[in-house]
Amino acid sequence: MKKPTKETCFKIVGYPEWWKDSKPKNRKVATAAVTHRGEKREKDTSSRKSDQWIFYCGATDTMIHDPLDFDSLSTPVKTHIETASGELIAVQGGGSIVFLEKLKLKSCLYVHVLSSKLLSVSQVTKELNCVVLMFSNFCILQDILTKEIIGRGTEREGLYYVDEVV
To answer: How many domains does the chain have?
Structure first.
């Protein structure tokens, strides 16, 4: 699988005709109260940000757009990330997160402009001592020592979304 490049970035080279059909239609704005670590906040469900995690092979670090997902937020080692188009984007912070309430990852990056939470396959396999097995329509995280399945994802439109952690 090829990595996205500057030459293939729609933002730079232009969007194909089929792109218009894949964009979500305008939806009514809805708000929902969400409890997060005992804090109550309003969440705008019409926003383009997603709380779903995506397994991402192209990322060296796990990156999220919501500072409330961090156990603790500090000054990150990395100050910028580089996108596939070569654009540099500032990193606002870093720290550890508890992934799906059970697994802890260190050194995650806070990048507020992201629309989804990107789970670095490289970082996950190293920190959790596991393998990611990818199949045509799903993937699993398996602990190397115990062979237990500790996570699962489902393929949708070419991306593997995290479903659950056992």
So the answer is: 1
